[in-house]
Amino acid sequence: MSSAFHTRLAKIATEMETVLAQVLPEPAGPQKRVMEAMGYAALGGGKRLRPFLLIETARMMGYESPGVWQTAAALECVHVYSLIHDDLPCMDDDDLRRGRPTVHKAYDEALAVLAGDALLTLAFEILAQETVHPDAKIRLKLISDLAASSGTHGMIGGQVIDIYAGQNEQDEALITQLQALKTGALMHYAVIAGGRLAGASEGDLRNLGTFADALGLAFQIRDDILDVEGDSAAMGKRTGKDSGLGKATFVSIHGLAGAKTKAKELGITAKNALKPYGHKADILNASVDFVLNRQK
Amino acid sequence: MSSAFHTRLAKIATEMETVLAQVLPEPAGPQKRVMEAMGYAALGGGKRLRPFLLIETARMMGYESPGVWQTAAALECVHVYSLIHDDLPCMDDDDLRRGRPTVHKAYDEALAVLAGDALLTLAFEILAQETVHPDAKIRLKLISDLAASSGTHGMIGGQVIDIYAGQNEQDEALITQLQALKTGALMHYAVIAGGRLAGASEGDLRNLGTFADALGLAFQIRDDILDVEGDSAAMGKRTGKDSGLGKATFVSIHGLAGAKTKAKELGITAKNALKPYGHKADILNASVDFVLNRQK
Description:
The structure is a homodimer. Chain A is an all-alpha fold. Helices cover 71% and strands 1% of the residues of chain A. In chain A, strands 1-2 form a two-stranded antiparallel ribbon. Chain A is globular. Chains A and B meet through helix 2, helix 6, helix 7, helix 8 and helix 9 of A and helix 2, helix 6, helix 7, helix 8 and helix 9 of B.
């Protein structure tokens, strides 16, 4: 993994924070608490992996513009909204995220629901702006793709499967579908949106989709591996969450060694899809190594 | 109030049900419960006043097309999502809506949150479709207007004020702002969207906006009047909800007679704004009488 990669990842995360602060509503008026809650959730740091993938894909395809960053901000708003709602007591009931109280703990449940709703709404408001891309049809495609990726046939669908159908069923097809929807759909969107902004051809979009899907699944398998391997490691860290619940994971199905092999294979698939782009793909190729080797 | 009006209102409500059934996802796959919950909420009948205003405004401006109905369906998806989330235990905690269990009672809280999220997402997916209007810029305007009307400077903002700042403050400016955002913003959107689809001029859009804002406020004042007058009437009906909570309403500020006068004045303002359209405005003018005289 190149240090160029880590520099770029950190730089994008820092700049993303600035762009997000610009697109979020300034807390004002008698409704300002919901705007504060949106900022609390969205400006809390993080790797910003989805914006990174979007921006670096556009760059690989030769396109840079402030509109790329706005699209990435819209995508991150959807990601943050999903975390706020997933953390609610009626869903995963989590009190902490990245070491800070979750939104319903720092504020209250009503504000957590509303701040999530508002971030989702804001994402579409951002994408409709002319500054995102001069071509109105590309903006509309970014909007319909984002809605599809985050709706019942995308992220929300994955969350529903996770809650109702994913428990205790050691079914690889189902867990692959669950992950493809719950976390894969937005990573797929990140890469495809980067391509669309750059005016990528249908052939390029196919390559990018193959890359994104392999990367997204490898990301989830690594999550499952960390969930188990973390057990005997770093004390006090909350791991074994899914395995402890008896939930099906790639590790429970394939074993630890099998899951690692599968992740490696997916990494090769992801990199192969980027072969046509030669050295321009160096940063995205490094992101594959990053996903496969990450420790948290 | 003409019987032509009632016929038209009922006809639109019936046809709207068909259009909504078409745009909602077919329940299928391991995530089908959320699709069922969306249908349960969205296909439960109702006056469909917002779709009616949108469709009749477009018609008054000389425009009819299946895209008008799709836009109305997107707007209704946003309205229904807001009802599902408002009914949640952490918000208004209502068990019944239109005599049926609310979504979190018929399903559960997690599905109510997710079904609401999915309806909001679907609204933007619908509006991005080419069948809504051939002009991509009009579709983008419909999207950004809908996001603005339903976000922190629109409907969500009004809900936040209602929860946190609206209680026990007998402040007419605040309650007017609350209602302009919470219920007024989507009614404003309905009328303006009808105008935009029809390619209305800036001058026409100003007239339509004046009509919509006066109608929306009259609608809310009538709600407050019914909340009080209903007390001694129809037995078993849940009225006196807001007045019983000591919440500020137009009646608590102006008294019953004062509120009725104010509603009548707003009705005149609404009708005056439609004078330039002569008899073409008959149905929308009748909707003003309907709002002022409704008994539920």
